Amino acid sequence: ETGVTQSPTHLIKTRGQQVTLRCSSQSGHNTVSWYQQALGQGPQFIFQYYREEENGRGNFPPRFSGLQFPNYSSELNVNALELDDSALYLCASSLRLAGGGTDTQYFGPGTRLTVL
Amino acid sequence: AQSVTQLGSHVSVSEGALVLLRCNYSSSVPPYLFWYVQYPNQGLQLLLKYTTGATLVKGINGFEAEFKKSETSFHLTKPSAHMSDAAEYFCAVSDLGTGGFKTIFGAGTRLFVKA
């Protein structure tokens, strides 16, 4: 059973640029969630994808977008980067339950994004 | 709307002492509740979870938590702290509402363990 992996581990961008972060889900999981964790804070829910469609979204602007692929891997795209986007971005995979919720989320190690 | 409040951004205990990390939540529907631990420069690791059934949940590394619906609490405890328990702990609530699925994390509590 493979775990959740994320790439790259670190990334430096400048304000206004665009960035793509990648996540490979744990084997057998069909749901992926993305979180932003600023320094010294708890993770903030960005969105969740199930069967390649957005299944829930937190309070993030549309310049944060995502994709889920048929193999359940995922991308997080952020356009027009701002200094406040500097954070650890965490991906979590899980299995959707019959009632619509999800089972335990397994987190990747994260991508540390620095915006200068 | 969901929310999670962790009382105390920092908790310090002596090795061997009781660990108590507090978490209160609000949710409009029956929630799923979680505790995660995060070591420096790492992702989150699940300690334990409550979905349905028994309200006292046992997790890894000797941690346990009790779901108290009347108090909307899900406090994390461990009878005897170990130096390796020093880390950041996050309480989280998940539910499926009208806006779709959401998970909300608390701000975290950093646990210090003194020798």
Can you characterise this structure?
The complex is a heterodimer of chains A (116) and B (115). Chain A is mainly beta and 116 residues long. Chain A contains no helices and eleven strands. Chain A has strands at 5-7, 10-13, 19-24, 31-37, 44-50, 53-57, 64-68, 74-78, 87-94, 106-107, 111-115. The mean pLDDT of chain A is 91. In chain B, the strands form two sheets. In chain B, strands 2, 4, 5, 9, 10 and 11 form a six-stranded mixed β-sheet that branches. Chain B has a five-stranded antiparallel β-sheet with strand order 1-3-8-7-6, with no helix packed on it. Classes of the chains: A mainly beta (116), B mainly beta (115). The interface between A and B is medium-sized, with 28 and 24 residues.
Brief synopsis:
Chain A is built from no helices and eleven strands. By secondary structure, chain A is mainly β.
The most extensive interface between chains reads: A-B, 28 and 24 residues
What's the helix count of chain B?
Answer: 0
> Strand percentage of chain B, roughly?
over 45%
| Arithmetic mean of pLDDT of chain B | 90
Order of helices and strands of chain B: EEEEEEEEEEE
Sum up the overall morphology of chain B in one term. globular
Task: Kindly report how far apart the N and C termini of chain B lie.
Answer: 41 Å
Poorly predicted runs of chain A are: none
Question: What is the average per-residue confidence, as pLDDT of chain A, rounded to a whole number?
Answer: 91
Helix content of chain B: under 10%
Query: What is the string of helix and strand elements of chain A?
Result: EEEEEEEEEEE
CA-based gyration radius of chain A: 13 Å
Q: Sheet bearing the most strands of chain B, described? A: 6 strands, mixed
Helix content of chain A: under 10%
Main sheet attributes: strand count, strand direction, barrel closure of chain A? 7 strands, mixed
